[in-house]
Amino acid sequence: MNAYLRIGAALVAVSSLSACATVLRGTNQKFEISSVPPGADVELSTGQTCVTPCKLKLKRKESFTATFKKPGYQTATAQVESKFTGAGAGAGNILAGGIIGVLVDSGNGSMRSLRPSPLEVKLVPADGSAQ
């Protein structure tokens, strides 16, 4: 009976450590945002703000819209998608973690990446002329 308990405990311990992408990639992503010209105020639909160029730590599982504003330029928006990265992120789970690791990683967003990355937006002058 003790042998069964030890095996069960070992399986539970291994399963709890099997979320490979969570361990290797994390649930957040360092995300760079820039504009041409620089110095634009950026507001994300998630509530974060910055002035370009900037770097933010964002959750991998949340798609968002970025709105760029700069005096003398038209307001611009860009969509950033949270996309499943699959192959590399999930390979460790298939080999070592099994279904529990896949469920953990897919639920917390660690198997996803924000795209495009980095995000760069070219602002258009308010008068519509090209620069």
Spatial ordering of strands, largest sheet? 3-2-5-6-7
Figure out the total of helices: 3
Specify the CATH architecture: Sandwich
> Stretches where pLDDT falls below 50 for ≥5 residues?
13-19
What count of domains describes the coordinates?
1
Would you kindly provide a written description of the structure presented here, covering whatever features stand out?
The protein is an alpha+beta fold. It has one domain: Immunoglobulin-like (Sandwich), CATH 2.60.40. It contains three helices and eight strands; from the N terminus they run ααββββββαββ. The strands form two sheets. Strands 3-2-5-6-7 form a five-stranded antiparallel beta sheet, with no helix packed on it. Residues 13-19 have low confidence and may be disordered. Residues 32-81 form the PEGA domain. Keywords: Signal. It comes from Sphingomonas rustica.
List the helices and strands and how they pair.
Elements: H1 2-16, H2 20-24, E1 28-36, E2 41-44, E3 49-51, E4 54-59, E5 64-69, E6 76-84, H3 87-108, E7 112-115, E8 119-122
Parallel strand pairs: 1-8
Antiparallel strand pairs: 1-4, 2-3, 2-5, 5-6, 6-7
